[in-house]
Amino acid sequence: MTDWIEFAAALVAFFASHLLPARPGVRERLTGLLGRRLYFALYGTVSLLVLAWVIVAAGRAPYVELWPQTPASRWVPNFTSPIFWTLVVLGIRLPWPWTLGGQRAARFDPDRPGFAAVSRHPLLIALMLWSCAHLFPNGDLAHVILFGSFFGLSLAAIPMFDARARRALPPCEAWDAFRATSIFSLRPLLNPEWLKQNEDHLIPRLLAIVAFWAAALALHPILLGVSPLPH
Fold first, then answer.
1. What are phi and psi of 140, to 5 degrees?
2. What torsion, rounded to 10 degrees, do the Cα atoms 126, 109, 27, 38 define?
3. Cα(96)–Cα(181) distance, rounded to whole angstroms?
């Protein structure tokens, strides 16, 4: 019972650390008090610590099987991992201020949307993909709650960020901006003009994607105690 209480407390801390700063005026007051750099450094550190706690607590919770793990189910996160890292690497510092990881001070240009043409919420889509894929090989109750919570939180954040963008932009600019972006679309990858606009950034980031993917495979058994590869 104690392990379930710890898992519940970790989940509450995880949701609180993400939802409370998102409330209107809270982040502004904190950044005004601490400064932007200190605030985001503290927020990032707390977020990582709480994330580590909730993952460890899920592993300590009593094992209640909802569906069995099979070697085939482990292929799901492995097949989706390249897509996940592509979204993460290309989505960091997106020139779309109204999303997770976007450049807050950026002025969005609908004529040059960059990776926002593929997704204006790449980190949130990545989190949804990662959490959904990890449900397949983790069919015990605690991990279903854990990954289901990650999926639900990232899904709920998309309309919240879109509403912020509509409030921040004049109606005409908002329409042009949203028309230049997508929740998720592969059509820009087939557009020669878009590829030419972004070719300077693609090659180094593709190398970063491969590096992060390889590092994740190598560190997974060290940090989490289990290999991600089927066996």
1. -90, 160
2. 80
3. 9
What is the 8-class DSSP label of residue 140? B
Res 204 pLDDT > 80: yes
Cβ proximity of 210 and 204 under 8 Å = no
Three-class secondary structure of residue 175 per DSSP? helix
Locate 100 and state its tokens: 């997770």
Dist. CA 89–CA 114, nearest whole Å = 13
Residues β-bridged to residue 228: none
- Element holding 164 (H helix, E strand): helix 141-168
Greatest mean pLDDT among 17-21, 127-131, 174-178, 212-216: 127-131
pLDDT digits (tens, 9 = 90+) for 76-113: 999 999 999 999 998 888 889 899 888 877 888 888 89
